[in-house]
Amino acid sequence: MHQSTSHNSVHVASRQAERRKRNKKRAVKTRSGSDAGNGFLNTTFYPLVADRIHLKNRVQRQRDFYTSLCHLARLYRFKPLDVSSYVYPHDIFMACRHAADQLKRVSPDLHLLIIEDDKHAATLATAKVYDTGRTLYYIPMQSVHEMLASKRHRKASALLLSVLAYLYQLVGIEYYTHSYIGGCYESLLEWIVTNDGDFEPSDFHRRISNIMASFYYGRKIKKQLAHPYTLQAFESRLLAFKPTSPSEEQLLAVAVEAFDLYSDYPERGVYDSFVHCLIDPGEEYRVTPDQYLSFTWAAAGWLLEDSIEYVNGDLQETGAMDEPLALQFFDRPQKKPLHDLCFETKLFHLIEEIIDYLNTV
What are residue 329's DSSP bridge partners? Predict the structure, then answer.
């Protein structure tokens, strides 16, 4: 579905357009992973940076680390490195680097980390990342607005609102009017006003009107998505919906997929599986989830094209991307690898299906 691109490229979901990237800001919520335990990550230590392994609490750190190393080596069937000739903390650094090399031979998709939190002084954990494909998952509200304005789509738009309310209220996808994309629109507006002489009068007023409309109508839709009843009515709307066209058949399939996910994971949100800067922590400039996963306004036309170009430039210099991940701690023996990304896999597929529907409705 997506064109292949370079490392520093990102594509738009459901055949919209391409883009590059450069990040500046944004913090992210955190998660422990389905198999990781409660309370999480006050501090993280990346295994290949020796000077980040602090000298304090040496005995407890060594005990936790070597215990977890034994558990990891037993599960993945390798012999830990003999580090008796090294002093602390270089012994931990060398042992961890060797373990990471051994792990890559068996499971190349896993990252090995040393983690400190309120329960662990320095324990090994493996992380499996859900690969988003460096894709922009932008859900366009302009298509929703057009459906709501049509009496012919009254029942379909009501069901669609319930699907989107699930993504907004429970999954936690950010709404663009007060998020990264909203800031993008505001920057475009400022640029147009500052460079008004570059436009024909009719084009200038059209662009200003389009951006102002995106905020005005977007806020109205947001109120409906945030209303508790919109989500509460999801099941009844789904059961009552009788499709009368191929487009409505597509909507029904999307709604069933969304309701199944809602039923199977009633308390899961997308930000539950993000840990900011856990992977590639040395990269200062990063793509963060609010920058590639969001409701937006534009479904087509100049505003979509200009906003994607803006995002290309804004994210151009990033060297890393925060993506969903699942962690497995080795503070105790593990019978098998446990990295459950089923929710994330189903969620991102659902979002692609919704975007595809909204781009063709």
Answer: 125
